[in-house]
Every structure is written in structure tokens, then in C-alpha cells.
DUF7848 domain-containing protein
Amino acid sequence: MNSIIRGADWVLCEERGEGVPDGIYGVACMTCEAASPLFDDEQTPCAVWALHHTQEQPEHTLFLARTERHWRVVRRPEPEDPAARRPTALDRAFGPAFVGLMCLLTAASGLLPLLT
Ligand SMILES: [Zn+2]
């Protein structure tokens, strides 16, 4: 769980949690329109697909490999009172962990419909 970048009130983080892939991989031929299916967490099937494609079409040797990841922006957990907005030492120590927990919870709640 890493926050990637922080704005004043929002935090961008990688979406992690049960069922959320680390990466979604795909590869597309640059010579024709052919593209592999998308694979969660595994690059090897893309490599196999590209090799098979070149075996079938020996002129097609250049591919565009893609890795996709889920990001989520969450509201920065902080008091609304502007006087209390100055981060404390405690905030600095526990802020990122709390945001990480928030991201986990958000990911889990997003998955609930899939699990029922
Ligand atoms: Zn091709």
C-alpha cells in the first residue's frame, strides 16, 4: 500500500486488496490489429502470445506491451477545522498507515458485490 502522490485534501494510492491484481498485462501487435487477451498478475501469457503471433506472421515482430494498474483517490483523513490542519508529529507517523487502511477498506468494499 503506497500513496503515490498527495494533494491538500486528497491522496492518490494504488488500489490493493483481495482480488485486486497487482497488474493487468496485455500485448498488441504494432503491425496489425491483433491483441492478446488481458492477464491478471502474469506477463508470461503475453510473451507466449507474442511468440505465437510472430510464428504465424513472421513479419510481425514489434509489440506494444501494456501494464495497467488500479489507482484510487481518497479523501485525506484530516480534521475539517483549518486551525487543526497543521500536521502533528502523530499525524506524520500514522497518517500514511491510516490512508493505507482506508485504501484497503475501499478496495474490500468495492469487492463485496463480487463476493456475495
Ligand atoms: Zn500482427
Summary: The mean pLDDT is 79. The pocket of zinc ion is lined by residues 29, 31-32, 34, 53, 57, 60 (CB under 6 Å). The CA atoms of residues 19 and 94 lie 26 Å apart.
